[in-house]
Amino acid sequence: MAASKKKPFVFFFLAIVVVSVFMFVLEWQKRRVPSLTVAANKGIGSLFTLDGRLVAVYQDGRTCAWDWNVPEIKQADFVAGSGRAIPLTESSFAAISRNEDRRLLSIYDLNTGKKIKDLTAGWEDQDIYLQNSNGYTMPIVVRRNPERDNTVEYEFVVVNLDAELLRPPVTVKLDAKTQTLRDYAVSDAGMLYAVGADNEKARLLAVDLNTGQTLWSQRWADTKELTTVTVSVDRQTVWVGDRDGQLLAVAAADGHLLKKVSLLKPGEKRTVSNDYSVLNLVVSSDGRRLGCTIAPIAYVADAETGDVTHRFS
User: Fold this and answer.
1) HSE-up (13 A, CA, CB side) for residue 279
2) pLDDT of amino acid 109
3) Which residues contact 148 (CB under 8 A, 6 or more apart)?
4) Coil, helix or strand at residue 296
5) Residue 26 has what pLDDT?
6) pLDDT > 90 in the chain, percent
7) Contact assessment for residue 44 and residue 56, using Cβ atoms and an 8 Å cutoff
8) What is the largest distance, in Å, between two alpha-carbon atoms of the chain?
9) Cβ pair 152, 163 in contact under 8 A
10) Contact (CB, 8 A) for 289 and 308
11) Average pLDDT estimate for 159-181
12) pTM given for the model
């Protein structure tokens, strides 16, 4: 009789122990995920990995960095020219800054927070962006000139950091009424791939930045506007995303379509935004995975098949 009275107490005690252990594990897991809080930030303009560090350059130029292995301690906090920034080699990065009517390509040292040099990148009436190849070996300045006579002109300029000069621009002209350019990627060999639309249908353009020649231009009448692009590590495949939640694999040599896969589950809907545009397409450093977003979900896909392996809300 005494033993039976003890059983409820034992079960109650065990339940308290289990719950306590569970709560401890939860709290321990929370502590393992560091909070990289930056007070009063203006929104991220650029985000990249450089020299083993996660670097965030905010839209107002504020730059913060954390070591991936010891992320609890902020290793850098200083102001660069703007949030339009790209990683370079070693511990330096470039950002667009302003000097009166000129736009400058300013180089910064991440370790010291000091500006190393300035190069003239363009002028006040030009909208200027930066891009770099997967291996950080081919930085380029992208200049969008003001629209004239229904024509939009883009200038792609390779930057020679050693010689501290910009090569003559490679120009791409678009019909402002019918053509768009949404994104571009550069291979380490200097091949530019630009995506957008022609009469609202998908267009992919390949240009050799070393010679200025257009290698090929592909249009797909059964595909909506292309929104994002990246190049595989082996430079054999160009991956692009469209406005229908699809990834397209294209042969880099001639632009023929290799495959088309959907990132969406059957019947998946965006009830609020109704926007299925694929954005932020990147390839992992080992070339095995693709990462991208269709707001508000991030996707990881196999870089060989395009099949989705993970989804993150």
Assistant:
1) 9
2) 97
3) none
4) coil
5) 58
6) 78
7) yes
8) 98
9) no
10) no
11) 95
12) 0.85
**Which of these ranges, 5-19, 54-68, 168-182, has the smallest mean pLDDT?**
5-19
| pLDDT for the residue numbered 37 | 82
Q: Compute the distance between CA of residue 231 and CA of residue 284 in angstroms, rounded to an integer.
A: 11
How many residues are given for the chain? 313
- 3-class SS string, the chain: CHHHHHHHHHHHHHHHHHHHHHHHHHHHHHHHCCCCCCCCCCCEEEEEEECCEEEEEECCCEEEEEECCCCCCEEEEEECCCCCEEECCCCEEEEEEEECCEEEEEEEECCCCCEEEEEEEEECCCEEEEECCCCCCCCEEEEECCCECCEEEEEEEEEECCCCEECCCEEEEEECCCEEEEEEEECCCCEEEEEEEECCEEEEEEEECCCCCEEEEEEECCCCCEEEEEECCCCCEEEEEECECEEEEEECCCCCEEEEEECCCCCCCCCCCCCECCEEEEECCCCCEEEEEECCEEEEEECCCCCEEEEEC
- The residue type of 274 is N
pLDDT at 29: 53
Q: Are 283 and 274 in contact (CB under 8 A)?
A: no
Q: The tokens 């005494």 sit on which residue?
A: 2
Backbone φ/ψ region at 309: left (φ over 0), alpha (ψ -120 to 50), beta:
alpha
Cα separation, 192 vs 158, in Å, equals: 11
Contacts (Cβ under 8 Å, ≥6 apart) of 122: 102, 103, 128, 141, 143
At residue 183, the 3 state secondary structure works out as strand
Nearest partner of 308 among 48, 297, 107, judged by Cα? 297
3-state SS class at 217: strand
Work out the number of other CB atoms within 10 angstroms of the CB of residue 297. Answer: 15
Separation of alpha carbons 73 and 63, rounded Å: 14
What is the percent of the chain where pLDDT is above 70? 89
Q: What is the mean pLDDT of residues 20-45?
A: 71
Please tell me whether residue 28 adopts helix, strand or coil conformation.
Answer: helix
